[in-house]
Write a structure and sequence with these properties.
Layout lengths: L6 H41 L5 H14 L2 H14 L6 H26 L3 H9 L4 H16 L1 H14 L11 H12 L2 H31 L6
Helix pairs in contact: 1-2, 1-4, 1-7, 1-8, 1-9, 2-4, 3-4, 4-6, 4-7, 5-6, 7-9, 8-9
């Protein structure tokens, strides 16, 4: 076997990879934001045992976590279109990743809210705070700080799972790599390149979240 690895080929493919990276970052950022919002809403419904809605949230989490993400992507992209609610590949991907991440963030945030000391809840209610005020002023600020590591894990998974969107034609990073491989048969170069790109992004995201976690914990350090 006489395969010659080519760094110049990777350099020549950089503009295409950067275009795909941009789509990956936009899809991932939107999905992470929406998944946190979904997680906050559904976790709050479950923690406060809101009639009917709490059960709906629990069913949503169970359904999403019990079915493959690729099936969910296909259902949203192809299934909704057959019902007359077709979305573009981009927004189908954002919706699928948001719902997937939202299910996991529901459990992440629910764990964080459950970790809040019950005495704080009793104190808040004794001061006349309504449940929504307790949630906004006490439970969420403390609970979100507790579950930051779990939220990071889900955010990283959303970023990596954005590669599934190449299956519905979204021109993200993996789609671009697959397209170049189909044309030039430079499999090793392309997948090494995108593997390193994903690794760098995950490391940067992890570093940023660790710094955020340190910043949020600073007021509570008594040293």
């Amino acid at each position: 076997m006489d395969y010659q690895f080519s760094f110049p080929y990777i350099w020549g493919a950089t503009p295409d990879l950067l275009d795909g990276l941009w789509i990956t970052l936009i899809v991932s950022l939107l999905s992470i934001i929406f998944s946190v919002i979904i997680g906050v809403v559904c976790a709050s419904l479950r923690v406060f045992h809101v009639p009917v809605l709490s059960s709906v949230a629990a069913g949503y989490v169970h359904f999403i976590r019990s079915t493959p993400l690729l099936v969910q992507i296909f259902f949203i992209f192809y299934g909704l279109a057959s019902l007359g609610f077709g979305l573009s590949g981009f927004w189908s991907g954002v919706l699928a990743l948001s719902l997937w991440g939202g299910a996991y963030n529901t459990e992440n945030i629910r764990g964080g809210l459950s970790a809040v000391d019950k005495g704080l809840k009793e104190a808040a209610y004794s001061l006349g705070l309504r449940p929504i005020h307790y949630l906004r002023l006490v439970a969420l600020p403390i609970g979100l700080r507790v579950c930051i590591p779990a939220l990071l894990n889900t955010a990283v998974s959303v970023l990596k799972n954005s590669s599934y969107l190449q299956a519905i034609g979204v021109a993200e990073l993996t789609f671009v790599a697959m397209d170049r491989v189909a044309m030039d048969f430079r499999t090793l170069e392309m997948f090494l390149a995108i593997g390193l790109i994903y690794l760098v992004i995950v490391l940067l995201l992890s570093t940023a979240v660790r710094r955020l976690e340190t910043f949020l914990k600073a007021p509570f350090n008594t040293a």
